[in-house]
């Protein structure tokens, strides 16, 4: 496994063209603006930027908004337990991503028809204690979804991803 072959996701709160344009072309973006109301014009600009640069763009926890702006999909956080995602008419390329920290949350994400599961936190973060590699591998075994490593990934521990062989990884600070 080489880091370049992994799928990469970057959680963003703002659209900074000069920063995003210089990142690896294989990075997909997840809009997770928790701090303030989302400006539709900003999201449309970001969506257009992603299309022009052949990147994927997802909206966090708002499937109606993701459909409205024609995003590539939606990301459902571990705290989001809504089961109405299948009641929406989705185009065939629309992808549902989700995150989980334990067995129960993984089963909820399976019911939500999530395709890729962000298992977190792999390494220690400011907010949460780490899942650790052994717990991660056990959670990975119980699901059919593609696993994305999330949480505390940095330049010092990125090589440890070889131990779990994930489908991809995600972060914020790693890409900043």
The Rg value, from CA coordinates, equals 16 Å
Shape call: globular
The largest sheet, given as strand count, sense and whether it forms a barrel, is: 8 strands, parallel, barrel
Strand content bin: 15-25%
Class from secondary-structure proportions: alpha/beta
Order of the strands making up the biggest sheet: 1-2-3-4-5-6-7-8
The DSSP helix count reads 5
Number of strands: 8
Poorly predicted spans: none
Calculate the terminal CA-CA distance, rounded to whole Å: 23 Å
Overall pLDDT metric: 89
Question: What is the H/E order?
Answer: EHEHEHEEHEHEE
Query: Which percent range fits the helix content?
Result: 10-25%
Provide a brief overview of the structure.
By secondary structure, the chain is an alpha/beta fold. The chain has helices spanning 17-20, 40-52, 63-68, 103-111, 133-141; strands at residues 7-12, 27-31, 57-60, 73-76, 95-100, 116-119, 146-150, 168-171. It has 5 helices and 8 strands; from the N terminus they run E-H-E-H-E-H-E-E-H-E-H-E-E.
């Amino acid at each position: 496994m080489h880091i370049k072959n992994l799928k990469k996701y970057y959680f963003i709160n703002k659209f900074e063209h000069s920063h995003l344009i210089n990142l690896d072309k294989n990075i997909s973006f997840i809009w997770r603006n928790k701090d303030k109301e989302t400006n539709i014009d900003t999201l449309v600009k970001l969506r257009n930027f992603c299309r022009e640069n052949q990147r994927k763009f997802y909206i966090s926890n708002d499937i109606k908004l993701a459909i409205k702006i024609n995003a590539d999909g939606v990301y459902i956080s571990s705290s989001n337990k809504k089961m109405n995602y299948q009641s929406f008419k989705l185009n065939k390329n629309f992808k549902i991503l989700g995150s989980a920290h334990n067995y129960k949350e993984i089963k909820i994400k399976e019911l939500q028809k999530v395709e890729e599961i962000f298992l977190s936190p792999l390494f220690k973060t400011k907010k949460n204690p780490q899942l650790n590699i052994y717990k991660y591998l056990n959670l990975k075994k119980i699901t059919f979804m593609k696993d994305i490593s999330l949480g505390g990934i940095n330049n010092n521990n990125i090589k440890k991803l070889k131990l779990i062989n994930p489908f991809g990884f995600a972060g914020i600070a790693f890409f900043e």
